[in-house]
User: Fold this.
Amino acid sequence: MDDMVERYLHAIQLFNEQDFFECHDVLEEIWAESFGDQKTFLQGLIQASVALFHFGNENFGGARKLYVSSRERLERFPAEYLGIDLLRFINEFDACFQELLEAGDVYPSGIELREERIPVIHFADQE
Assistant:
């Protein structure tokens, strides 16, 4: 298996283990070697990881900002991209951030990153 694919799979594993900061680091290494659409897609995943990291640390402003930029990048791609069930991921990502987004510009109180809402990256060939 090629080194980039191995690192990509490792990053997805880290994401699914909720090790968002480490996932971000691994994805950034791959991103630095990528071009075109792949680079844009990876940047969207990096931003999703950091958005969740910030959300978990109650940096709600940073979480919201990165959610929006991640979403803008990822929604450009088809439902399945680079082996990922992207549509499913985006739906889970949206549900995770719904309460925070609904708070609008008001500093949210009583909102936290809830374990059951944290998105998981599924491969397109998984059930």
